[in-house]
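Handout, section B. The chain below has 113 residues.
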Amino acid sequence: MTIRERLNGKKMDVNYETGYHFQIEFLNDSTIRWYALSKTAEGAPKQEEEPVSSMEISEGVYFLNWIEESGIVVSQIDDFNRGKVFAFMTWPDENGRGKRAQLLHKGVLTVVD
């Protein structure tokens, strides 16, 4: 089952322990729309549509990856069995290693009807 089939007509609420909070809507198997419900990275928009790649790792566990227009890259594991989400974000930063900054998140994943 694709993640889109799992979430057909629903949205994901993703609330990270780092204070970031998003709602993600799957428009089709290759496009998401996300909405920031709290803080965002400096200069990042409050919502965007992104092409997304995804694959099922195991029953109810999915790996997603997308590159935002701003250069932010998100690699995320959604575990619907445990209601957990893990993500690694990286973005352009002239002073960072490889000219990139990074942030590792973990949090709670909830399906919104």
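Note. The mean pLDDT is 92. Compare this with the example in section A.
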